[in-house]
Design goal:
alpha/beta, 14% strand, elongated, binds zinc ion
């Protein structure tokens, strides 16, 4: 590799940090970026650079946004009294593929994981409780954390926190999802069935 100019070596090194990209793929991508004449390199570089400055988190649901409220929270056709709780912004992207969901979301920013030192304070849990507290309307909260050990643990924790809210109906998406399968990777039909088959969920 040392026969390559430093600039290319640096690019390969940075690309191989991306998930799912090994050194071989990184090299291939780097040479593609180098040789392809039609490629808008400045546009690509600017798009990456803009990630730092152009994005904020939605004040209501904590999803990625371009202004105070994300495009879903500010959509008047979306039911504000229907809140689907997910782990990460990519889960919102996946659930939106199901197309029929017309509520809003709440992005926790991860799952409870004592081993990794992630407790309730590291997630947007208080913010969810505040949303439930902030309305007198009856609301449905759909817990759509992944069917993993941490995802189930987080779902149960939320159920315990929400059990005394008389205005909250709590549901959990159905598990047509493969065991250990992430919502993020589920196809449109699976997502639609998981959402439609949701059941009432209670703390034990
Ligand atoms: Zn939002």
């Amino acid at each position: 590799m040392s026969v390559l100019p430093k600039s290319i070596r640096k690019l390969i090194e940075e690309l191989s940090r991306l998930p799912g990209i090994g050194p071989k793929t990184a090299s291939r991508l780097a040479f593609f970026l180098l040789k392809n004449k039609d490629l808008d390199r400045e546009g690509l570089a600017a798009a990456i650079d803009n990630l730092k400055t152009g994005l904020v988190f939605c004040e209501q649901c904590h999803n990625l946004a371009e202004s105070v409220l994300c495009s879903i929270c500010s959509d008047r056709n979306r039911k504000q009294n229907l809140i689907c709780v997910v782990e990460e912004p990519l889960d919102v992207v996946a659930l939106e593929q199901g197309r029929r969901y017309n509520g809003t979301y709440h992005v926790l920013g991860g799952v409870l994981s004592p081993i990794d030192g992630i407790g309730p304070k590291n997630l947007k849990i208080q913010e969810l409780l505040a949303r439930a507290r902030g309305t007198n309307d009856d609301i449905e909260i759909i817990i759509a954390t992944n069917p993993s050990l941490e995802g189930e643990g987080t779902a149960m924790y939320l159920a315990r926190q929400l059990k005394d809210f008389v205005n909250v109906k709590l549901t959990r998406i159905a598990h047509g999802l493969p065991i250990g399968g992430d919502i993020e990777y589920a196809d449109e039909l699976t997502i639609m069935k998981a959402m439609e088959g949701r059941r009432e969920y209670k703390a034990n």
